[in-house]
Amino acid sequence: MILHWSPRSPYARKVMISAHELGLVDRIEFRNTLVAIGRPNRDLMADNPLSKIPTLVLEDGTVLVDSGVIVEYLNALVGGGLVPAAGAGRWTILSRQALANGLIDVLNLWRNERSKPPQQQSAEWLSAFAEKTAATVDRFERSAGALGAGEFGIDHIALGCALAYADFRFSDLNWRERRPALTAWYDAFSERPSARATRPFE
Prior knowledge:
Layout: E1 2-5, H1 10-22, E2 29-32, H2 42-45, E3 55-57, E4 63-65, H3 67-77, H4 88-114, H5 123-142, H6 144-147, H7 154-169, H8 180-190, H9 193-196
Parallel strand pairs: 1-2
Antiparallel strand pairs: 1-3, 3-4
């Protein structure tokens, strides 16, 4: 299998951490692929016309896109471990993953807006991104106890990648302030071998 990825992408990191946790790293060729919202990567577009990572190309040429879909596939390859196949717990885990994914989306939009020349930035949008980020991190602070109660899964991976991305791209955010439970959870997450092996870098 070939995985188009980047060490800067939190979504690609979700797949990387999952591959480590599932023991599949040796079965994947990791291809560092540069993407940017305004510069389509035409080589990547042969596999994914959206020019987005992560993109996984299977041995038979089948292409899988979206981190959630790719993790579900890897999870199925080894008979489970990160995503429950059924039951009420599955919906809780998938909903937490979706909330963490949404946090990554907001942080990406926020970063894109802040990268514009000052005169082109929208103060209203910047305020909205900040408010949504704080509210989402507060929600995870309140549910940090539940995060530590179950087995390590895709919801933990998505949240860990979101918070790591906040550290990576928003050095001024200080999301840990007044959030001791989530901070303790994230510190433990960051020491997992899979997290240590996939830390983002430029």
